[in-house]
Amino acid sequence: MRPAPSPASGRSSRSTRRTSSDTRSSRSADPPAWLRAGLQQAAEWTALGFNGMRSALFFAESVPLSWLQQPGGRAQRTAAPSRQALEITLARLRSLLEQDARAIGRGVIPISVLAPRDPLGHGARFVRILGDVRSVVARRDRRLAREFGARAERLLEELPAYYRRNFHYQTDGYLSERSAELYEHQVELLFRGGADAMRRLIVPPLRAHFGEQHDGRGLRLLELGSGTGSATHAVARAFPQAKLCCVDLSLPYARHARRQLAAYERVECLQGDAAALDFAAGRFDAVYSVFLFHELPLPVREQVLAESRRMLKPGGFFGLVDSLQKSDDPELDWALDFFPRAFHEPYYAHYASHPMERLIEEAGFESLTRGTGYLAKWIAARAGINPPNSPD
Question: Largest Cα–Cα distance in the chain?
Answer without folding.
Answer: 105
